[in-house]
Amino acid sequence: MWRLAVTTLVILSLLDVAYLKMFGICELALTLADEKYHVPLSQIPTWVCMAMYTSGLDTSHNYTGYFGLFGISGQHWCGQCDITCDKLTNDDLSEDVACAQLIYNRYNSENSSGFNAWGGYYHTCNENNRLYIMTNCISFWNNFLPRFPEDERYRIWTILRSHRSAEPKEDEVATPSEANTIIRQTSLHIVKLAITIMFTICYSNSLGF
What we know:
Blueprint: H1 2-17, H2 25-32, H3 44-55, E1 62-63, E2 66-67, E3 72-73, H4 74-78, H5 94-107, H6 120-124, H7 127-132, H8 138-144, H9 150-164, H10 176-206
Antiparallel strand pairs: 1-2, 2-3
Helix pairs in contact: 1-10, 2-3
GO molecular function: lysozyme activity
Catalytic activity: Hydrolysis of (1->4)-beta-linkages between N-acetylmuramic acid and N-acetyl-D-glucosamine residues in a peptidoglycan and between N-acetyl-D-glucosamine residues in chitodextrins
InterPro entries: Glyco_hydro_22, Glyco_hydro_22_CS, Lysozyme-like_dom_sf
């Protein structure tokens, strides 16, 4: 029995190392702003909103054929993005962003936004809603809002100001995804602790204590 306990403990330790990332809202916004992803700044609030509703900001998302941070359809897009769907469920966003942008570009036209590829999720992420969820991303807006076109900058600032007065500061609360991360990590550590205790008891019994 103690061998089983040791094996289980090792497996749980490996799972802890391989723990896949769940983003916070502001963390994802700042990540997507990295120049290596080539995401237009004006699109970042929409991408963050879409990720929140499609995957809960979970990079390991895999549900009913939809994969990764942006809930990409495996049936329709993994092949066209020239990747296997499991590439969308690790903590490297390169494939996720590249595939999402390919989808966006395929659907984008003068008469339709490329975000329409995500159907109802995009309609949920109207301008007011997508800016609302990023109201308290002070570090993002301080760094990047000045780079928006002047007319768009003023409109965004007006919406943000209307929300911000009643909202807590960015670092005062955890986002739902951050809270879920804490819960999952804590649960894993509790299980590991229980296995360690079981191993100790079994080992002590084997020595005749």
